Amino acid sequence: MRIKNQLTFGLALLIGAVVWFQILLLWLQEFFGYNPQWGILHHILGKPTPFDKLVFHGLFFLTVYGGLKALWFLLEQFVYEIKWSRKVNIKVHKQYTQKMNQKFENIGFRIIVIEEESFVAMTCGFMIPRIILSTKVIRQFSDRELDTVIWHEYSHCRNRDPLRSLILRTLEMSLPYFPILRRFSHYIMVWMELLADQNSIRKMRTSRDLAGILLQSSQLAKKQSVGIGFADVAINYRIQQVVVPDQEIKVPLFEYHSIIFSISSIVLLTAAVFSSCS
């Protein structure tokens, strides 16, 4: 499943790159009058009709909206990252932080414990991932359960999941008219958690500790905001993986209507580019 997850991520990047290439051509045509001549297809499409021009301008504004939305999202994430880093630096619990880093000095990623009475267990940092735990997690869980949490988050750090999540969400934001990207994003996000759980089970050689953590975190999620990595959209799949380990987990990847709509969008966008260049 790890390979399929990586292939799905690569396919999402490929689709995003192809679509954004078409969008850039639209923008070049609109702003600079760029007019590429692409042989046979160029002549097959013929001269644009008034309807073609209307569709072209509609797509142009739609793509600009998607681009601005993605830029705003990235700006929000950048600001949030700065604010969160400041909060972490202010609330860091030095004693617990030192203890956890000494215990896991060989994992290659920094562990930071913050003074916080809510449940926080997450991986953050797009370029330099680090594991963030709250003092509530340290005090509430046993040593084995803490080890389970760390190995789960270690998987997110090793695979650069915060950065991958940012890329997927940016593509999803910038291309809302390609619902297949939303399906890919959901599939990959779920398997990020499942693979992280598999890593912790493998390291701990049992799923018992993880089962207890999932139960507690799912109950806490009903009362408060829980850190990324435990109470999330994948919780049902994760519980299934622990309770019925021999049963194959089937996370839906494709939906016919999303495929059809996405293909139609690509065809329409490509046709608009070529017809506008006629």
List the helices and strands and how they pair.
Elements: H1 2-32, H2 39-45, H3 50-91, H4 94-103, E1 111-114, E2 121-124, E3 130-134, H5 135-140, H6 143-158, H7 161-174, H8 179-204, H9 208-221, H10 235-243, H11 256-276
Parallel strand pairs: 1-3
Antiparallel strand pairs: 2-3
Helix pairs in contact: 1-7, 1-8, 1-11, 3-7, 3-11, 6-8, 6-9, 7-8, 9-10
Total of DSSP H or I helical runs spanning 4+ residues: 11
Head-to-tail CA distance between termini: 46 Å
Detail the poorly predicted runs.
38-46, 225-229
Shape: globular
* Gyration radius from CA atoms, angstroms: 23 Å
Structural class: mainly alpha
The count of domains is: 1
Keywords: Membrane, Transmembrane, Transmembrane helix
Protein name: Peptidase M56 domain-containing protein
Domain Peptidase M56: 120-225
Pfam family, one: Peptidase_M56
Describe this structure in words.
The structure is a single chain. By secondary structure, the chain is mainly alpha-helical. The protein has helices spanning 2-32, 39-45, 50-91, 94-103, 135-140, 143-158, 161-174, 179-204, 208-221, 235-243, 256-276; strands spanning 111-114, 121-124, 130-134. α1 runs parallel beside α11, α7 packs antiparallel against α8 (179-204) and α9 (208-221) runs antiparallel to α10. Residues 38-46 and 225-229 have low confidence and may be disordered.
